[in-house]
Specification:
Its main location: Golgi. The protein is an alpha+beta fold. It is built from 32 helices and 24 strands. The strands form seven sheets. The chain has an eight-stranded mixed sheet, with helices on both faces. Strands 2-1-3-4-5 form a five-stranded antiparallel sheet, with no helix packed on it. A three-stranded mixed sheet has the order 15-22-17.
Length: about 1050
């Protein structure tokens, strides 16, 4: 017994001898016919077919010519062929096995000349190499179907009798009637494909999340009761100590609520790359060629000074982007050189030349990462997982080429200077010979002998760092829309015959700068790239990188697209990736990895309205950056947003709003590109539940080539005057007015009702560098905290947010603006133990059991919360502790300075800059962490040093007071001493950073510290001798 497929065909016309077949791939609900090959059952089958004629007027049966089912063939007159046995047809008259030859159960074969199929059992004709004797079971004499299937690699059918076979394709190539216009019938044509989502949410296990939420509630109640007890039990002997402590504790409780509440709903996500490939890059009726239907992607790299940001690092970032796994014809790369330096320009030109061999090499061998410097610096066996025999040869050659590439890049500064000096000397000589009165300027010259239009080595009018023209140079043109393979022998050392050698488009940009204009730093550069890219490529999505962040996982962009193009993805404004860093010391002394924030807080925000935008490694929807509302949004009413009401058609701006010149500028090309970008960024309309989608195959057409007029328009939109009288930086693009423009830009999108997604890939998506020196780290934190203070005193404060921002999301943004002010209370609290030891008092009258129980309960719940948070976020306990230490270090230094700077700027318009005043040289250039031991003095060191010194002296004073007192009060010494040690433990990384390398701190430092502490303590005991009275509640005991 075997099963054959039944496919419905069009009704046969009485006057036609040729039956028309149904279109290929048509899905049917036809019943299958059980072909039990018995002559006695033929009449029953005929009757069954006649009975079903009213429902299915005509059938075509796909039947494989197996040995027990050999169809007979007749000639034009209907006589059976003389060849074959048992009425079998000649093998030359039959289609090969597996061909989709259509046989009509009611009218013969489709060619019109074949007779009714003979359904008798026939085992006499067996395909070679087996014979009938080998295929007949030895005991029963029956035909062995399983053995026949094994030896012929055949099949009787899958589901509705689909049998794949290699010969079918060859047969269909010569018979147009087989399989219809799309070729032979395939499995996917006969089986209904279930709709697959591109991503899914992965919930945190309830066994972790439920206890976590319960502990948050327990700690909240404990804090509430503890604060009530503290407020109702003052220390009458030291009201000033009690007052300072109670104010600080109330603020810390409020700060903890702001930080903890948004963490109540953490989630994980997973993307399905196979489903993305199947929907957008597989052959289908809407995509017969199998080209990519993915939307365009514009990638931005921002740099400003090649002497502070090495061009070799930027070139490696560019190479990693050019080699990423995204359709070449849909990927467009831009670099914004805000300094307009010729060094950056020529370094990028060298990188484009090297990309011609590096990109095909990465595709051929599938190497990771695709940053050459990071790839060749990897430890381990480079041949692991590589299958091509020429990998070792290719890698050796490409490594040598990369070493030469590095030499060329590092030699560019000297090359440019020598070239410039030589040409300037020649120009002066020519002017002298011609006796010209015109002054000869010291210009900077390009390799082709022309003036560099950007910044010159020797500044001149129109060629200074803040005064130069716009520059747009397309270094790599748009590639061909079809795959282009390398030709044999095209390269003398590398074989790219089966490798796509195309390279994505790349353009160098430098926006115009003129004196008297506010260029708005990085935010202005990003907006210039947005406008220029809209003219040149207009990718529906944009991905931005700093010049030191590269792609570590070449499939990361595809994972982000799974979220953007999934059902409901049209409401997502950006996909934020976590930031991962290289070159950090193993102990991560200053919490540079910041895993508590990236793996804890950001993952928790993903369960609300989405993570914040943190500056780099973020994929944006272009339409959302333009300041439009999402297609669907909701407003949250009530005290804590418990009532959700949909907003009626929030994303349908009228044509006047979309084409408003006052909003976007005077470029018609740019305004026309907005609707195109919005349409191309929609998900596929392949399911009834997909709203606001586009039809499949809409993005298959090749892009037109760039012309001179288009490039000229891109130059115009990055001029310094283009943003005048527009909403760029106010409502459109990156928002101006804050040093942390990233947080403000993300907040504005969330405030309009957009959502964001946090994409954590199994292999790190991107990697970058971070400062490991203490001073550099503190200045980085200072910049972030200053931006937060600016946000708090601006209209971007979350208190003023719209109702489209969820309540817990509002708390998270509110915490962004408030957290620097915690430094005012933190520095007082860090000095409280020292004040207690100096005065001989404590924040409570006695170490009451109630106080100790509350303290123990709060501490235990905090530790348990930490353990569960480590469990669902994946961070380590050491990382959590390092984060706590640096929170105290940064809170009493950089955060305090940021608050002071913000208050002076807002209140008096005075801006303070904290600069470096001294720098110690590295002692070992071979040590990769030599920068960790550099000591660069800054005024930010003063508050932490003061806290450390005061607490050390206070400990000595407390011990001396207990020793010299007639009635020692050890409980107060124990309380003050414990908390003083706790403060010093948090400052251990700071002290270690000031000491330099282990064993390099002079002994005299420790000696002097001890002498000063003892001297001050004895002096304090003399001035304020211990009080022999024991008081409690202001009453002598």
């Amino acid at each position: 017994m075997h099963v054959v497929g039944v496919q419905q065909a069009t009704r046969k016309q009485p006057s036609s001898d040729v039956e028309r077949r149904a279109p290929a791939g048509q899905q049917l609900a036809s019943p299958t016919i059980n072909n039990n090959t018995n002559d006695d059952d033929d009449d029953d089958l005929e009757d069954a077919a006649a009975a079903m004629w009213s429902d299915y007027p005509n059938y075509t049966v796909l039947m494989p010519p197996t040995p027990d089912n050999q169809p007979s063939a007749t000639g034009s007159g209907g006589a059976p062929s003389s060849s074959g046995v048992s009425g079998g047809a000649s093998r030359s008259d039959l289609p090969p096995y597996g061909s989709n030859k259509v046989v009509n159960r009611r009218g013969g074969a489709d060619d019109g000349g074949a007779a009714k199929m003979d359904r008798r059992l026939s085992t006499a004709r067996v395909p070679s190499p087996s014979s009938k004797s080998l295929l007949v079971r030895s005991q029963t004499g029956d035909f062995d179907h399983n053995r026949w299937l094994f030896e012929t690699k055949g099949t009787y059918g899958i589901g509705n009798a689909y049998w794949p076979q290699d010969a079918a394709t060859a047969y269909a190539a010569d018979h147009d009637d087989v399989g219809g216009p799309g070729g032979p019938v395939k499995m996917e044509d006969l089986v209904d494909k279930p709709w697959k989502p591109l991503s899914r949410k992965v919930a945190i296990p309830p066994g972790i999340l439920s206890p976590y939420r319960l502990l948050v509630l327990v700690r909240f109640v404990s804090l509430f009761l503890f604060l009530i007890w503290r407020a109702t039990n003052p220390n009458m002997d030291a009201l000033w100590l009690w007052g300072i402590s109670i104010v600080c504790e109330f603020w810390f409780a409020f700060s903890w609520i702001l930080d903890q509440m948004p963490k109540l709903n953490p989630i994980n996500r997973a993307a399905d790359l196979a489903a993305l490939r199947e929907k957008f890059e597989s052959t289908s009726p809407s995509n017969p060629t199998g080209r990519s239907d993915l939307p365009g992607l514009d990638v931005f790299i921002s740099t400003a000074d090649p002497y502070k940001e090495p061009p070799l690092v930027t070139a490696n970032v560019l190479l990693s982007i050019l080699a990423t796994e995204y359709p070449v014809e849909k990927l467009f790369v831009y670099i914004s050189d805000d300094g307009g330096a010729l060094l950056t320009f020529e370094a990028m030109a060298e990188a484009c030349a090297f990309a011609k061999v590096w990109v095909p090499f990465c595709r051929k061998h599938g190497v990771e990462p695709r940053n050459p410097d990071a790839y060749f610096a990897q430890k381990g066996d480079p041949t692991k997982g590589k299958k091509r025999t020429d990998f070792v040869k290719d890698r050796r050659w490409i490594k040598r080429e990369y070493d030469e590439f590095k030499v060329r890049i590092n030699g560019l500064p000297d090359l440019i200077k020598r070239r410039t000096n030589a040409i300037n000397k020649r120009e002066r000589k020519a002017a002298k010979e011609s006796k010209s009165d015109a002054p000869v300027v010291k210009a900077t010259w390009m390799a082709d002998g022309t003036h560099w239009p950007g910044t010159w080595l020797d500044s001149a009018p129109d060629h200074a760092k803040g005064d130069h023209a716009s520059i747009v140079q397309v270094m790599i043109k748009n590639p061909h829309y079809d795959v282009v393979y390398g030709d044999p022998g095209e390269h003398p050392y590398l074989d790219f015959t089966d490798v796509d050698i195309r390279i994505p488009m790349f353009a160098y940009l430098s926006r115009e700068k003129r004196p008297g204009y506010d260029h708005n730093k990085k935010a202005g550069a990003m907006n210039a790239m947005v406008r220029a890219s809209a003219i040149l490529s207009n990718g529906a999505f944009m991905l931005n990188f700093d010049c030191d962040h590269y792609i570590y996982n070449c499939h990361a962009i595809r994972e982000a697209m799974c979220y953007m193009l999934d059902r409901g993805g049209d409401r997502i404004c950006y996909i934020q990736f976590p930031q991962r860093f290289e070159g950090i010391d193993p102990s991560d002394r200053y919490a540079n990895h910041n895993t508590v924030f990236f793996d804890g807080n950001m993952r928790a925000l993903d369960g609300l309205q989405g993570p914040m935008y943190v500056g780099t490694g973020c994929l944006f929807r272009r339409y959302a950056v333009y300041g439009f509302d999402p297609p669907r949004a909701a407003e949250y009413h009530g005290i804590y947003g418990q009532t959700k009401l949909p907003v009626a058609n929030p994303a349908e701006p009228d044509e006047q709003d979309r084409d408003n010149v006052r909003r976007f500028g005077k470029s018609k090309l740019f305004v026309d590109s907005i609707a195109v970008a919005e349409y191309q960024g929609r998900p596929l309309q392949d399911h009834p539940s997909v709203l606001n989608g586009r039809p499949p195959g809409a993005l298959l057409a090749p892009r037109p080539a760039l012309d001179a007029a288009t490039v000229a328009e891109s130059v115009a939109v990055i001029s310094c005057w283009y943003e005048d009288a527009t909403e760029w930086g106010q409502r459109v693009g990156w928002i101006y007015g804050s040093v942390t423009e990233d947080v403000v830009t993300g907040y504005r999108m969330h405030n309009r009702g957009w959502r964001s997604v946090y994409c954590i890939t199994r292999r790190d998506a991107f990697r970058g560098t971070a400062p490991i020196n203490l001073t550099d780290r503190l200045h980085q934190v200072l910049r972030w905290a200053t931006g937060s203070v600016e946000i708090f005193f601006s209209r971007n404060n979350a208190i003023l947010a719209s109702r489209r921002l969820k309540f817990l999301q509002r708390l998270a943004y509110l915490n962004v603006g408030i957290y620097p002010f915690t430094s005012l209370f933190l520095i007082m609290y860090c000095l409280l133990p020292a004040l207690s030891l100096f005065s001989g008092q404590f924040i409570v009258a006695t170490l009451d059991p109630t106080f100790l129980c509350y303290l123990l309960l709060i501490t235990i719940t905090l530790m348990l919360l930490c353990l569960l948070e480590v469990k669902w976020s994946g961070i380590g306990l050491e990382e959590w502790w390092r984060n706590e230490q640096f929170w105290v270090i940064g809170g009493t230094s950089a955060h305090l300075a940021a608050v002071l700077q913000g208050l002076l700027k807002v209140g008096a318009g005075i801006e303070i800059s904290f600069t470096l005043t001294a720098k110690a040289a590295a002692e070992d250039d071979d040590d990769p962490f030599a920068e960790l031991y550099l000591v660069k003095w800054t005024s930010l060191f003063i508050p932490p040093l003061a806290i450390i010194g005061i607490n050390i002296i206070a400990l000595v004073v407390g011990v001396s007071r207990a020793v010299y007192a007639e009635i020692p009060q050890y409980s107060k010494l124990l309380g003050g001493g414990f908390f003083s040690f706790w403060v010093l433990a948090h400052y251990y990384p700071f002290a270690k950073g000031l000491m330099g390398r282990r064993g390099r701190t002079p002994t005299i430092v420790y000696v002097w510290a001890g002498l000063i502490s003892i001297t001050v303590s004895l002096l304090w005991i003399t001035i304020s001798p211990p009080d022999d009275r024991i008081t409690q509640g202001g009453i002598d005991v």
